[in-house]
Amino acid sequence: MTATRTARERARAELTQEIKDEARRQLADVGAHGLSLRAVARELGMVSSALYRYFPSRDRLLTDLIVDAYNAIGEAAENADPGEGEPRDRWLAIWHGTRDWARAHPHEYALIYGSPIPGYEAPQDTVAPASRVALALVKVLTNTTVRAADEVPPELRAQAETLTKALGIIAGPETVARLLMAWTQLFGAISFDLFGQYVGSVDPADAFFAHSAKRMAEFVGL
């Protein structure tokens, strides 16, 4: 019984992966808004009722794809960090590792950082995976103190304190504020690059991205 159950579980895991792989291929053709369980089933030679046993709705499939994408880009950021050496070098490595993944997987990047999907509301399942890149950057800043040039506004101070508690980190409100600005700059620069916003200005954007990474390192105190 145990061997049979294990074989069934293995077969289910393999088919689940095939379904997600096919869905990712379709993202490149129709985008997230056009993803259809029926179309995925048809390409896999399945009846749609059989596919619904694995993913009861399009939104459930989208959530799995989103979580996978967040985990993949988070893993890329974490693996890019050598974990030792100068914090500034670690910061730059994370920035470039994150961008490299996005450039290699543009459609998955668009799924998580592109236009919102009409009618889809991301569940709580996506929060932790979505935090992995930011947490990789936080690790680099653990022992860094930012001297505030201006007082942090009370509302932002309260938000920063809430965020540090949620993430389980120790950081002052100015450090948190600057990290959020740098995080925004990181994904803003990647999105501008992938979605063609730099055409006619800094295209290719390699030199500008590298310069931005260095300036943001200085900005957060590295």
TrEMBL record:
<keyword id="KW-0805">Transcription regulation</keyword>
<dbReference type="InterPro" id="IPR001647">
    <property type="entry name" value="HTH_TetR"/>
</dbReference>
<dbReference type="InterPro" id="IPR036271">
    <property type="entry name" value="Tet_transcr_reg_TetR-rel_C_sf"/>
</dbReference>
<dbReference type="GO" id="GO:0003700">
    <property type="term" value="F:DNA-binding transcription factor activity"/>
</dbReference>
<protein>
    <submittedName>
        <fullName>TetR/AcrR family transcriptional regulator</fullName>
    </submittedName>
</protein>
<dbReference type="InterPro" id="IPR050109">
    <property type="entry name" value="HTH-type_TetR-like_transc_reg"/>
</dbReference>
<dbReference type="GO" id="GO:0000976">
    <property type="term" value="F:transcription cis-regulatory region binding"/>
</dbReference>
<feature type="domain" description="HTH tetR-type">
    <location>
        <begin position="13"/>
        <end position="73"/>
    </location>
</feature>
<dbReference type="InterPro" id="IPR025996">
    <property type="entry name" value="MT1864/Rv1816-like_C"/>
</dbReference>
<feature type="DNA-binding region" description="H-T-H motif">
    <location>
        <begin position="36"/>
        <end position="55"/>
    </location>
</feature>
<dbReference type="Pfam" id="PF00440">
    <property type="entry name" value="TetR_N"/>
</dbReference>
<keyword id="KW-0804">Transcription</keyword>
<dbReference type="InterPro" id="IPR009057">
    <property type="entry name" value="Homeodomain-like_sf"/>
</dbReference>
<dbReference type="Pfam" id="PF13305">
    <property type="entry name" value="TetR_C_33"/>
</dbReference>
<keyword id="KW-0238">DNA-binding</keyword>
